[in-house]
Amino acid sequence: MSMLVLDEDIMIDKLFTPLGNWDIKKFKVNFSNYDVEAILKILMGTKDMKDTFIWHFERSGVYSIKNRYCLGKDVDTTTEPSYSTYKKLWWKSLWGLELPLKIKIFIWRAFYDWILTLANLRKKGIKVDRIYPFCKAGEESTVHALWLCHNLKMIRKE
Prior knowledge:
With 158 residues, the chain is an all-alpha fold. It is built from 8 helices and no strands. The radius of gyration is 24 Å and the shape is elongated.
């Protein structure tokens, strides 16, 4: 399972070879097989074509609220984006590990920020101090308590 390597702001022209074809290696590194297959089905025009916005759900290519409404009624919600697929695989592999159940549940709760921290108590309207009493260096959040707190890093090294 590879993670996205491309810069978030990359333009489509960076995904072409010098000859003007899709750079399949970049796709295979950055996208799931499902997405790669879908992208490779896109027909490419000539290099000299001017880009233009087209609403491919309408024969005229022009977006309309009416057309979008009709489309929304027929949307197939069974297909999932790549991230969702990777996330499911990650969770499936976590639950399949030979770890004590309490460790798996702790990881699950930390991922969803369901750990009892001062920051989460404040979100629930409970008046508590902002600063983490253990290190007094930052706000006690799940991220700070598990990864950023210098004092806890020192304890884990021992």
